[in-house]
Design a protein that fits this description.
- The chain has helices at about 10-20, 55-60, 100-120, 145-160, 215-225, 260-265, 280-295, 300-310, 320-330, 335, 340-350, 360-370, 380-400, 405-425, 445-455, 460-470, 520-530; strands at about 25-30, 35-45, 65-70, 80-85, 90-95, 130-135, 140-145, 165, 170-175, 175-180, 200-205, 210-215, 235-240, 240-245, 255-260, 470-480, 485-495, 500-505, 510-515, 540-545.
- The protein is an alpha+beta fold and about 550 residues long.
- The strands form 4 sheets. It has a 5-stranded antiparallel beta sheet.
- A hairpin with a 5-residue loop joins strand 14 (about 240-245) and strand 15 (about 255-260).
- Helix 7 (about 280-295) crosses helix 9, helix 11 runs antiparallel to helix 12 and helix 13 runs antiparallel to helix 14.
- The radius of gyration is 34 Å and the shape is flat.
Length: about 550
């Protein structure tokens, strides 16, 4: 390694020497002026090759430190530290003393050693063959035993120095490269690719089915759990690329380990199916539309498909059932994709129909028409009966003119509303009120919930906004009209688009007492309930008075 450039200022050179000892990248820019000379010294963490191009690699590259030194040209002048700044990808901070600058260099050095140690190859990864040493691309020595190279890798890994193993099995560090030499080298075009088990990991979530993923993604998850995401981790153990992470949220317990050849053979994904032509796809979509038109929300087994399509002009053959099942999944109606939120919308319509207005009762009928898509087949008959009762009551309300007829129609409408509400709760008991544990937490689940919740009565503009808008959670905060110390927060997940907010469910109402009277209700809500909202979308806190 080349000797880093010096400044001639004692304190600056000591920091440069310390950074070089940690293996940091050191650059010095010198500017001569009329009365003084300025030196801009930058320290950076070298990015391991395994992390290049990843989010962690960009984070590592953003962790730098810049110092500005000046020294007058007069005799006996001493160097002066004018400015020192530590940078990261999200912020920066100023350093006021030389002691703080020294501590910052040590922190960078320790982080650099940790990154290098995590990405460095293990001694057992060294190819069991004699090695040739190349320095700056020139052959310098041959016949180096593999055991000596393993000791070299072990020492560099222990010291936290950047070491990389390339695709040919060579060990690369600084300007040196140890290349394994085989007795019968294969031609370049037939060189074997790196073993799959060196590039793959096995991930097991909550004791479920193992799945294969790229080792780079696995290492990213491990490093995120140890650094930026450590607040979400209750317990963690890691060693030699294997880890066990216990998250505090719905992710639960995740185990990551290096994949073996047996793992690759057992858990490798099935090859992608052959592409289906457009004519066959449209043909399958026609049968899928009939399946949902018959409101068959059960499992599309061979027997169920045969029963639904038995009365068609030309029933499909059993060989076409897999293609029809794929079309059924792709054309899943919103109510079937998010049944709870369709039931919540229907229950709200039943509550609004209590005013016995014909328009409100007609809205309830529309919801009851779609509810079988969110229910198992055993409840379809009950839902249809409730819908028919509501239709009869609606017709009676429309045509009733005399007082006895109106009283009878209102009595029938009340009975229809009670039957509809009972049928809805039989499908989804949680639809009696919105629970915080039922709130969708990802962008895709929120979008599906909004589609199901607003499916009945949504305008074309609203449907387009659901597809193009941004998922978020909105928290509207309003203080009470008395002392103002009690705050009512209404939490709603939904889709934000230009001009409106489309909810995915009825608001969840949370009442609490302010913890800081100097701050707004929204800031207090962020402190009190912010940790409870474990969602993967932005959370916006707003004061109701500012809407």
């Amino acid at each position: 390694m080349a000797e880093p450039q010096k400044t001639g200022i004692k304190n600056a050179d000591e920091l440069i020497t310390l950074a070089a000892a940690f293996g940091l990248t050191v650059t010095v820019e010198t500017t001569d002026r009329e009365t003084l000379t300025s030196y801009v010294v930058r320290f950076a963490i070298p990015v391991p090759v395994a992390y290049a191009g990843t989010e962690l690699g960009r984070t590592i590259a953003g962790d730098t430190m810049t110092l500005l030194w000046t020294k007058a040209k007069k005799k006996g002048a001493r160097g002066c530290l004018v400015d020192a700044t530590v940078w990261s990808v999200v912020s920066h901070r100023k350093l006021r003393t030389l002691r703080e600058a020294t501590a910052a260099v040590e922190t960078l050095g320790h982080n650099s050693a940790k990154y290098a140690r995590d990405a460095a190859p293990l001694p057992e990864d060294v190819v069991d063959a004699p090695h040739a040493l190349y320095i700056d691309g020139k052959l310098r020595k041959e016949g180096i035993p593999a055991e000596r190279v393993r000791t070299f890798v072990k020492n560099r890994r222990f010291n936290g120095l950047v070491t990389h193993q390339d695709d040919d099995g060579g060990i690369v560090c600084d300007n040196r490269r140890y290349v394994p030499v085989t007795t019968e080298p294969a031609p370049a075009e037939e060189a074997p690719a790196p073993a799959a088990e060196e590039r793959m990991h096995v991930r097991i979530a909550n004791g479920g089915s193992p799945e294969l993923l790229d080792s780079r993604d696995a290492l990213d998850e491990i490093n995120h759990a140890m650094m930026d995401g450590k607040r979400d981790v209750r317990e963690m153990s890691e060693g030699r690329g294997n880890a066990r992470i216990v998250y505090r949220d719905q992710r639960g317990t995740v185990e990551l380990r290096r994949a073996t050849a047996e793992d690759i053979a057992a858990y490798a994904p099935a090859p992608a199916p052959a592409p289906v032509d457009e004519k066959a796809r449209r043909w399958a979509e026609g049968f899928a539309a009939k399946w949902w038109a018959e409101q068959h929300t059960g499992e599309p087994t061979d027997a169920a498909l045969a029963a639904v399509f038995a009365h068609t002009v030309k029933p499909p053959k059993r060989e076409a059932y897999p293609l029809i099942r794929e079309a059924i999944t792709a054309l899943t109606p919103p109510a079937a994709a998010a049944p709870l939120f369709a039931a919540l919308a229907a229950r709200e319509a039943a509550d609004e129909a209590a005013d016995l207005a014909p328009s409100s009762l007609h809205r309830l009928i529309n919801h009851m028409e779609t509810m079988p898509l969110a229910a198992p087949p055993a409840l379809h008959e009950r839902l249809r009966a409730a819908r028919d009762t509501a239709e009869g009551a609606w017709e009676s309300l429309r045509v009733a003119h005399s007082l006895p007829a109106k009283n009878a129609a209102r009595s029938a409408a009340k009975d229809a509303i009670v039957r509809a509400r009972a049928a809805i709760l039989a499908v989804q008991p949680h639809a009696s009120r919105m629970h915080g544990t039922d709130m969708p937490h990802t962008a895709d689940s929120i979008r599906a919930a909004v589609l199901a919740y607003m499916y009945v009565g949504a305008t074309p503009d609203e449907t387009d906004a659901i597809e193009s808008g941004t998922a978020e959670v909105r928290v509207d905060c309003r203080p009470d009209t008395g002392t103002g110390w009690m705050v009512t927060a209404r939490v709603t997940a939904g889709i934000r688009d230009v001009g409106w907010f489309l909810p995915a469910h009825p608001p969840i109402v949370v009442k609490f007492r302010r913890v800081d009277g100097r701050q707004s209700p929204a800031d207090n809500a962020r402190k009190v309930i912010g940790s409870m909202l474990r969602v993967d979308v932005p959370v916006k806190y707003k004061d109701a008075a500012r809407h």
